Amino acid sequence: MKIKRFSPKQKQVMGWWGPKSESRHYDAIICDGAVRSGKTLCMGLSFVCWATACFSGQQFAFCGKSVVSLRRNLVQELTPLLRELGFQCREKRSENLLVIRRGSRENRFYLMGGKDEGSAAFIQGVTLAGVLLDEVALMPRSFVEQAVARCSVAGSRLWFNCNPEGLHHWFYQEWILKAWEKHALYLHFTMEDNPSLSPRIRQRYQASYSGAFYRRFILGEWTAAKGLVYDFFDPRRDARPAPEGELEEYVISVDYGTANPCSFGLWGRREGVWYRVKEYYYASRRTGVQLTDQEYAAELARLAGSHRLRGGGPLRRQLYHRPAPGGLPRHQGQQRRPLGHPRHRRSVETRAHRDMRGLRGLSAGDGAVPLERGEHRAGRPP
């Protein structure tokens, strides 16, 4: 395989760890962006060069969605290029091991797949000096975090690359948005960063997608593509920011889920137009932690704040609620329970049962259920 030249972005990936680089102080590198943007091969080459320059006799890991896809997408193209550069590559397929040597330096690179939650067990116990996670957005969080935890050798570094997924994806939230906190160098790739793509091929890719898929695959943006009812929706074109200041009235929409994602939206109206002012979103399957109904109720109250909602003042709530398995109204009733007043327990329980009956009857009504709550004093149990 012949590479005629690297783009400036690829050159930055190749040398970010060098002793004269301005980026040498980072502990990790994250490359995301469009499909066919040239990030995978240059990252794999840089990873091996860094490992050989800085270590000898150490263990590293190439990680992909599966070992098969890792061999196809990375190893198959990388090893011929390494041999042309003077590296000796010997693969032990039965051990999923690639031994790479140049001169007197030799290191071992394990090939690992992170296809599901159980994959984290296969990487436990090993000590690594570095890891490259190819298409990290396709791997479960437990596997990625276990791989990161394995890198305990002094001077070890982390290498991530991926194509974008949705805005609520855990890797986007925890690594890309927090790259500075993680001490990670973040580089965004487009098709223009891949000099091996001809203008005609780029035009063909650009003509193949539209809407959210164009933004994700061509522009390399993190945006919702799966499950969109209107895939042509463009928030920059079809939405506008909420007006400043207090609005005329407010309501809260609730798409409640326990195992499935939970979404609360605070809506405000001005001059006949409703705006989604603030929102809360939590997906337990992505984080691996399921919240209790009491915790969701606290988030709901925090979202409402002191806004005056339709149907009453700050202590009265009217929810437009899509029901889900679980007992949010019942737990809201428990959270609303007046403290130290046993004689009020019956009224609280009655109110909770009334709320539950209202939720169960939503299919026959207009979707509006009034819910009340009393003030809850911090530091005392409900």
Number of helical runs?
A: 13
Radius of gyration: 26 Å
Mean pLDDT: 82
Task: State the fourth-level CATH superfamily of the largest domain.
Answer: P-loop containing nucleotide triphosphate hydrolases
- Overall number of structural domains: 2
Poorly predicted spans: 314-320, 329-382
β-strand amount: 15-25%
End-to-end distance: 68 Å
Characterize the quaternary organization of these chains. single chain
The CATH top-level class label of the largest domain = Alpha Beta
Overall outline: globular
The major beta sheet can be summarized as: 8 strands, mixed
Give the number of DSSP strands: 13
State the CATH topology of the largest domain.
Rossmann fold
Tell me what you see in this structure:
- It is a single chain.
- This protein is α/β, with parallel strands linked by helices.
- It has 2 domains: 8-217, P-loop containing nucleotide triphosphate hydrolases (Rossmann fold, 3-Layer(aba) Sandwich); 240-372.
- Helix content is 32%, strand content 23%.
- It contains 13 helices and 13 strands.
- The chain has helices spanning 8-15, 39-54, 67-84, 120-123, 141-149, 170-176, 199-208, 211-217, 235-238, 284-287, 293-304, 328-336, 345-360; strands at 28-33, 59-64, 88-92, 97-102, 105-113, 130-134, 157-162, 184-189, 249-255, 262-270, 273-282, 316-322, 368-372.
- The chain has an 8-stranded mixed β-sheet with strand order 3-4-5-2-6-7-1-8, sandwiched between helices.
- Helix 5 links the parallel strand 6 and strand 7 (157-162).
- The longest helix has 18 residues, at 67-84.
